[in-house]
Structures
1.
Amino acid sequence: MHSALLLGAALLVVSLVSFAVAIALVVSLMSRVIRTGYSGEGFWKNVAIMIVVTLVMAAAHLVEIVLWAIVFRASSGISTFEKAFYFSAQNYTTLGYGDIVLSDRWRLLGPLEAINGVLLFGLSTAVMFAALSRLVSGRLHS
């Protein structure tokens, strides 16, 4: 149990650092948009900005799933990376079909990844809402 907790805690930290990079990318994008004086009036530009923000957040989630999958593949005896990725995606999204189960020694990693996923989905939602709010407020003030 201690091995799984330590490994899970380390993955949570690596995951947060990785996700922070994606958030910094979105903040940089939005800062650049704001500094150019964009007021939010262009419909298609707003659509493009939100698509980019959403894609960055989705890519960040996929990176997190891959990170966990690598650990599942290396530590828990899941036979292929494809199965480890599938298992990781189930845990990260809290879907949890239960068709793949870790050994007793590593089973705590699943719920730890679910905690990670829930927290980061909340954080990405906040980032997307902040970007959208900025576009809406810019449009209302112009």
2.
Amino acid sequence: MIYCLGENYFLRSLNETDLSGPYLSWLEDQKVCQYNSHGKFFPTTESLLTYYQSIKKNELIVWAICHKIDGHIGNLSLQNISFIDRRAEFAILLGEKKHWNCGVSILAIEKLLEHGFQKLNLEKIYCGTAANNKGMIAIAKKIGMREEGRRIQHLWLEGKWEDVIEFAILRKEWLTIR
């Protein structure tokens, strides 16, 4: 499976060979992992392999975000998939900073929403982010998500408590904006 995202980017399944590329360095980069837990407990090659093996065992979709010249630049996932409740959480990690602010995250997430709603028959896709993560908040709003709620003092980031803002989009909302 390969999804094209314009001229220079594409999505594909995460491969085991991706683990030996720059992936581990992204998880060690405090700027890349500023708003997630990856930078708190540094992973190892072995823990990455364990994670990769768990993808096949769990109801989890992980795609590699790729650039035609730079290769694997990040990951995108649908996780916590519930086929009974027809919902899933999405997460994104764009590890290569030179590809930040170029629109690839929006394109990738839009393709993931399409996959979730059209292929997996999901009814709701959601995400949560730190209240001070302006980039992710802007992305969530741009792809049509709405704020559903706030978890007060839910994350310990950079020496202080941060709220988490929950966003979601329903299939019927997604259909009206696509």
3.
Amino acid sequence: MTTQLEHTNTNFSEKQFPITIICDHITSAANIGAIFRLADAFGVEKVIFVGNEPVFTRRMQKTARATHKTVPFEHLTEENDCIEFLKKEKYTIIALEITNNSTSINNLKISNKNKTAIIIGNENYGVSKNLLSIANHTTHIEMFGKNSSMNLAQATAICLYEVTNNYQL
């Protein structure tokens, strides 16, 4: 008989990957909470909020399930400060965005020897042109329905799954 495990008795091993999530003007409390939770689940090193400072509303905290207390994060008001940081620290930069030259995330191959920054964009406007311009890779998730986008947190989860798989190879 199959028994559902509790959080305290799973056999998952804790790992951390040299991955930073860059949140480009993310505004939704539910998305912010979900980003924290995903960062914890996928062993992300840090989350950086660019533009809007995250507001710890009840909705955000409920969605985050206390992961906002354990996942390191910082806030940068200016995009240029973020760009400077990413270049100085020599990140491999991935923008999660549909563009005229983006490639499918299925084909994304990155070195597991470098630090990776994943830029996710505003819920309505996507990744800013400034941040897109510094990306080493622009990738999208292939979709098969009529819509051309999905929820930010869902897309981030798919991207983190693919990127962490690259690190485990």
4.
Amino acid sequence: MSAQVPASLVIEGLSHRYRNAPRRALSDVTLRVEPGERLGLLGPNGAGKSTLMRLVCGYLPISAAKNTRVQVGGLDVQTHSVQVRGQVGYMPEHVPLYYELRAREHLLFRARIKRVPRAQRAREVARVAELTAITHVLDSPIGQLSRGYRQRVGLADALLGSPPLVVLDEPTVGLDPNQVRDVRAMLRDLGGVQTLMFSSHILAEVEMLCDRVVILSEGTVVADETIETATTASEVHLGVDGDAEAAARVVALAAKALSTELVARPGVGGDTDYRIDVSEAGVPPAQVLRALGAAAQEASVALLGLRAGTTRLEERFAEVTGGRRPQLDSNDSAEPDDGHAEDSAEAAEETG
């Protein structure tokens, strides 16, 4: 019997407070990300998204606490910091790049820091350059590249060495619509091969790319659900081949089977269309749909339609964060984001 593959990321009871900050940036965060999963991290400005990513990647120290545990691939981030960094590809919101270097030189240097074997570095740089469509600018100084291409270089950096966990903070910021589409396609292809955790203020992007979404508000997790659950409205739609009396018979039979109350209200499709608010019934939409289908058969009423309503992720976001919509330029921390400090720290670990 083969050993069970450890979760890509396990977080239990994680809290963090910046010096002199009036409140915690994170408070008792607990979540788990399985191998190959694509997790979207959402929240208003100051919710703690960037802080959470920095802690996971070892960029910020984790406060020692009895019930706190942060593991990447089964390795504890606090006690195996160097090994964990080898398991994570991290791209912060403000990408740290050496503008005086050519893109190829920067990536070769970063491949060395990440301990990619010397004989494989050139081939690995070529691989990630092709993935991020920067092959034609590899010999250009980074300082001369557009913001969009600098963003791509940072993304290529995060993918060097095929880390099992890829953590991206606002990966499409600064890209034009065509570049955004290309990056989305690339991130979609990572699913099932590498675990992806990324934050974005473009909710449609998260909805398209992710299996699951975690929403933070004021440092706490206020929602942790599959995309399907997060975008399923709290109502179902019933279409019957008959009048209001026929619909009422179906709804009454379904309510009896579920031991709850169901109220059908007119929908937008005329006399044959009805909507039922399942939040009032306290029963999951899927269970209500099954009951309505069985009730229609029992009542000998032909169905013209039966489906769960859908909602936009933006509506779910507003619901769990108290109506605060996501805004651009999210910087959770009370401290400056000096991206080059990360490079210096990693270089010191390798030489030390």
